[in-house]
Amino acid sequence: MFSKLGQYSLYPVLLPVFFVLHGCLENYGFISPGEGLLLAIIYTAGALVLGGTGWMLFRNIPKAALFAFMLMAVYFFFGAIHDFLKEHAGSFFSSYVVLLSAFLILLIVVIVYLKKRNSPFKRLTAFLNLLFIVYILIGAGDLIAKTFRHSDYALSVYPFAKNNTARARYKQCPDCHKPDIYFLLMDGYASTVALAKWYQYQNNLDSFLLRKKFSIQANSRSNYNFTPFSMASILNMSYLQGIANPKNVTVNEYANCEVLIRNNEVINRLSAAGYDIVNYSVFNLAGHPSVARQDFLPLNTRLITERTLFACIRKDIGWKLAKWYPFKWFWSSDIMQDNRNNQSFIELVKTSAATKSAKPRFVYGHFFMPHSPYYYDKNGQLKDIATITTESLSNPIPAYLEYVTYVNGRIREMITAIQQQNPSAVIILMGDHGNRDVTSEAFPVRYFQNLNAVYYPDNDYKLLYDSISGVNQFRVVLNKLLKQDLPLLPDSSIYLLDKGTAPHMK
């Protein structure tokens, strides 16, 4: 049998199958079978293309197979190699210049070697075929076992995590007036107190909000300093349980946050109360998928692909390549995606205010601003790609403050449209965390000082309080609007550090 395995060069197409299967097992529950299958097909097609290229070079199938296998292996395992060298060999040997040059030299050596060698490589072919067949069979068995063995996600929320029957828990309120609720989340928007104290910026948004009869919670704080964790806690009205190491959060913990956001308690309770859910956010909500491309959560197949060669280059040095084609086109399209999402969501929120509905609506708009990239200056002028790229890497405070000025204008547009077209609507305007400038502080308070303002048409704000944090925001709102009896939790902030994820992904 071993000799027969040496006759067919299957391993170049078995490698991508193994790679995707291994990724699905590591991230079980986050990647659907369809997504995994599609990724495996794409990678297998890539292996066949490389094999075809190798055949044109060598006119020999075993040599073409080795050529394709080497390139695919470098592509798949580049991130692991890079991380190993960073940890054990220092910055010089792990630099992209050295590493990519070494891979190029290795490729040339392999090509020359294969050109000169006349061996059919039967023993090596048989070994690699057998190795990946065994790995795939073991992985498939493990995958089947996981489908029959329930396991909880690593993160959960208290006290709602173990029971997802919102209708059974929901306190009925047949006589409650159920207004539309607009939840406008401005990513990275610091409170007026923080802007004045830390950056000497006098925010005139407060005067507008007060004229519009908002209550401003000036000393509000977020519970977490990264968006996925903050939103998971806000929308589940709870702190997150199970973060293994707050000083080094993991990719899987980001993915767990996506699960908690998708099946969150606020949506469950509002749906049970008869609300329609309108999702203009970057997150998928159960039954209400996002209409935007998501860039800062490593979700779905990105859990597998994020350490491949292309993903590492894009994340770490993509901005350096942005001045050359075809990298320039890819980078300019990629860095502008959040701006396209923002502009689309703003128009959708304004349009929804004029749209009548037979049922009350919960409209969730999540805007990736004034978080970097800082697309506009204070006069509303769109910056050029080079400036946006430079500022997104250095996050200069003046650029952030100018962007705040621009964002204020867009907030005014949305609030004015909502109050004119839908005057009975409740509006919740929040930042998910404060501004995160570079610091070596053990606990940077400003990272948590967030924008927080609420509008009730009846102007009854007695349940709100000045130092409210995210976990209590919707407890207060639901207690008022739907006469729930949700107890308030202690307000606190948990400082998270992430040593491995690019800043734009947080």
Structure overview:
The radius of gyration is 26 Å and the shape is elongated. The strands form 2 sheets. The protein has a 6-stranded mixed sheet with strand order 3-8-7-2-6-5, sandwiched between helices. The chain has a two-stranded antiparallel ribbon with strand order 1-4. α2 (11-26) runs antiparallel to α3, α2 runs parallel beside α7 (122-148) and α11 packs parallel to α12 (251-262). The protein is α/β, with parallel strands linked by helices and 506 residues long. It folds into 2 domains: 2-148, no CATH class; 156-164 and 180-505, Alkaline Phosphatase, subunit A, CATH 3.40.720.10. The longest helix has 28 residues, at 61-88. It has helices at residues 2-5, 11-26, 33-58, 61-88, 90-93, 96-116, 122-148, 166-169, 192-199, 205-211, 227-236, 251-262, 265-272, 302-305, 309-317, 327-335, 337-353, 385-394, 397-421, 470-481, and strands spanning 156-157, 181-186, 215-216, 240-241, 276-280, 361-367, 426-431, 452-455. The protein contains 20 helices and 8 strands. The chain is 52% helix and 7% strand.
